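Hi team, as promised in this morning's meeting, here are the two structures we talked about. I've kept the exact order from the run log so nobody has to guess. The first one is mostly here for context; it's the second one we should focus on when we meet again. Sequence first, then the predicted structure tokens.
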Amino acid sequence: MKFKLDIAHQVPGRIRLKANSAKRNPAILDHIKQLFVAIPGVESVAVNTTTGSLILHYDPTQHVEVYKNFQARYASHALPASTSPATEIDAAVNTIEEEAEFLASRSLMARTVVDFCKTVDQYVRVASDNTVDLKIIVAASFSILALMEIGVTASTPLWVTLAIFALNHLAELNLPVRPIV
């Protein structure tokens, strides 16, 4: 499985990774942790589920060997940086998440709803091996509902009707003429 991992900071003895797609998802962060804790020379891996970051601590005297093994694992499990560039959709999602957290900090009902959505999102991500999340399911559901509603009430667009009419008449014009008997 590949993840969107970024090396946020590194000094001999310490490497900090960011996995933004795994924020508040302990199952995925634990999976990533297991990939790097098995590297010979790595002493510990600290995980922060709130920020989606991991900090690898290792013996600085083994820097060359640890870093070589780290690079091999990182290259085999990290998506290239160009795979998922930041978009306006990412910015909108981040804004909505920040507003939800702001409201949740001021209301028990909002906190309950936000926590429920995060729990459902986590179950969906784990069940789909981090392929699908709740945002995709909600967007797809709204799209399907909109298409169903449009399909019931929409008529054929005028350009489609005219195109069919023109093709039909073109075909009739090019038919061989049969003599009338």
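And here is the second protein, the one for discussion:
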Amino acid sequence: MATKFICNGMLGKLCRLLRIIGIDSAYSNEGMAILLSARREGRTILTRNTRLRGKRDVFFIDSSKTAQQLRAVLDRHNLWNEVKPFTRCVVCNERLIHVEKDAVKKRVPYFTYKHFDEYAQCPQCDRVYWKGSHYKNMLKEVEAILGETLSES
């Protein structure tokens, strides 16, 4: 079973990157109450909060640089083989599902519908995704951080 995380405090960018690469990552800014949430949900806490350092199921992030944070999490939890880009909603963390082009016709701009054939949708927040320029930019960002070319999902 893959590791699930809950990012605390100033780790919003790390949480977003983990979601982009397909790693289950919730976000919380609830201070010490995060300990209860993490245990209830079976998540490891990722934090820079020194008050949480040394607690059970907490991975303290030393670096303030997002790229180093991401690599540290992947190394520490041996998740390099778990990377599956663009399989989770960046907004709410749910797994994306493939949807037929016709199902999104009235939900995406005309240009998008005309030029793209593959779509995914979040079953939780209903957001629609496609492999446009935003996708390509995120892919470049993640590849630069990871130092490797990712296979398209």
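Starting points for discussion:
Strands lie at 5-8, 25-28, 44-47, 58-60, 97-99, 119-121, 128-130.
Residues 97-146 form one domain.
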